[in-house]
Design brief:
Order of helices and strands: EHEEHEHEHEHHE
Number of helices: 6
Bound molecules: NADP nicotinamide-adenine-dinucleotide phosphate
Helix content: 25-40%
Strand content: 15-25%
Shape: globular
Number of strands: 7
């Protein structure tokens, strides 16, 4: 299968690339500052150009997205809009535009995270964006054309990211990037659709 991984150079993305290559897939690595295949998910024009430069895509995986962290009392509209435009609409646009480029029976796999299920202080934007992404995937799965599928991976904090995030996740179990990558593998090579795959924690509500 030809799999396009957007965010391929990141902590999650690089483990996903390795796992998919081990599964004998042809992986096209895409990111903001990549040498060959660049995209800026903030721009629909850039997304369109990226898809146009890659022929016959069987699976699209997004391991990208940023949000701001701040106490809820200090959040501003601009701070919330940043996460909505970057992590939420960046991935939604990858799907909306990607539908025109993905092969029949192809799949999308997006990325959310634990924070809408098990929130932390300063995480109101992350919770909002992750919840919206999980809901989007569930609904979009019913309407995708040409037998396309869509799932989303929702990891807890990665062990590799603890040096940066540990103080924000006291008492949380971490999970290795390699284990997280297995959920993307399951989404790409399986037949399920509309699923949220939690990794490293149990979901409290659907
Ligand atoms: N790390 C964790 O513990 C953790 C836990 C749960 C959920 N998540 C979620 O997993 C996703 C990835 O996190 P990560 O820790 O792997 O991030 P990361 O290491 O910072 O990697 C981010 C990736 O996104 C690319 N990127 C950044 N801005 C972009 C843009 N505007 N357009 C296109 N690509 C862009 C980067 O490309 P360049 O390298 O080329 O700049 C890089 O490949 C995020 O949604 C995050 O919320 C992460």
């Amino acid at each position: 299968m030809k799999v396009v991984v957007i965010g391929a150079s990141g902590t999650v993305g690089s483990a996903v690339v390795e796992t998919l290559k081990q599964a004998q897939h042809e992986v096209i690595s895409v990111s903001l500052n990549a040498k060959n295949h660049k995209v800026d998910i903030a721009s629909t024009e850039s997304i369109e150009k990226m898809y146009q430069s890659i022929s016959s895509i069987d699976a699209i995986v997004a391991t990208i997205g940023k949000v701001k962290f701040a106490p809820v009392t200090e959040f501003t509209e601009d701070l919330y809009m940043f996460g909505l435009q970057n992590k939420l609409m960046g991935q939604v646009n990858l799907v909306s535009i990607g539908m025109r480029y993905l092969n029949k029976g192809g799949s999308f796999t997006l990325t959310s995270g634990i924070l809408n299920q098990d929130p932390i202080p300063m995480g109101s934007s992350a919770a909002m964006v992750n919840g919206a992404l999980d809901a989007f995937v569930k609904a979009a799965a019913m309407e995708l054309p040409h037998q396309m599928r869509i799932n989303i991976v929702s990891p807890t904090v990665l062990t590799e990211s603890l040096p940066v995030y540990e103080k924000f996740f006291p008492g949380y179990r971490s999970v290795s990037a390699k284990e997280v990558a297995q959920a993307y593998h399951k989404s790409v090579d399986g037949l399920q659709t509309g699923q949220v795959y939690p990794v490293g924690y149990s979901r409290v509500f659907a």
